[in-house]
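Progress note, sequence design subtask.
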């Protein structure tokens, strides 16, 4: 009976430890914007995942061996990322180089073959970028992350205020949270050069009649009135 209970308990303990390791490692990974991972990043993630889960399915694998392997793989990835950042030559070797699939409005068939990128996939990627016709494209580049960057021809570019000779207003400041979950964000008030009295005055102008403790959020969006939301009852 003890052996029957011990095995699930050991599995749970190992799972907890591995979960903590995954969290710690993820905090110190090189930052990437969403979806912009190089090929070696994916290899690293797959390898790291395999190493981390191995002790869960094979009790003969010691945690010390797994941690040693994870540290070596992590340091290797960190070193490669550092080299890619410091040297353009190393970056090209580690991350690869982009492929120009469309240049001056013409599909580059040799480059398409080198990138193993069929024309149907190109058309599909253009549709996902909101482009229905190949004739609208001036340049299309397959980035090292696998993302397709597209530049339209001048005739198909969206009209801007500069094109229409219209004077545009100044850029709006980022929204600033002044009250969150019934608490005044004093640091944010200081950034705006406000005090609580001025906040109260602006809340009156915005007709905020809800008590402070029942306010979910009050936000300054660059001009009066304040945007506010009360908590659900």
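Output:
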């Amino acid at each position: 009976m003890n052996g029957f209970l011990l095995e699930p308990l050991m599995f749970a303990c190992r799972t907890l430890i591995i979960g903590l390791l995954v969290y710690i490692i993820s905090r110190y990974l090189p930052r990437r914007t969403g979806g912009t991972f190089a090929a070696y990043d994916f290899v690293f993630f797959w390898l790291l995942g395999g190493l981390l889960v191995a002790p869960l399915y094979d009790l003969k694998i010691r945690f010390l061996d797994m941690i040693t392997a994870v540290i070596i793989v992590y340091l290797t990835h960190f070193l490669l990322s550092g080299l890619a950042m410091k040297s353009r030559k190393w970056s090209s070797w580690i991350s690869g180089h982009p492929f120009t699939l469309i240049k001056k409005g013409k599909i580059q068939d040799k480059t398409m073959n080198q990138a193993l990128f069929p024309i149907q996939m190109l058309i599909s990627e253009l549709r996902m970028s909101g482009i229905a016709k190949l004739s609208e494209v001036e340049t299309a580049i397959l980035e090292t992350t696998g993302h397709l960057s597209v530049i339209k021809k001048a005739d198909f570019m969206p009209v801007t205020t500069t094109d229409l000779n219209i004077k545009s207003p100044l850029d709006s400041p980022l929204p600033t949270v002044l009250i969150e979950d019934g608490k005044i964000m004093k640091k944010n008030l200081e950034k705006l050069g406000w005090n609580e009295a001025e906040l109260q005055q602006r809340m009156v102008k915005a007709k905020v009649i809800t008590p402070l403790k029942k306010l979910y959020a009050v936000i300054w969006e660059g001009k009066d009135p304040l945007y506010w939301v009360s908590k659900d009852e």
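Residues 179 and 218 are 5 Å apart (CA to CA). Work on this subtask will continue into the next period as scheduled.
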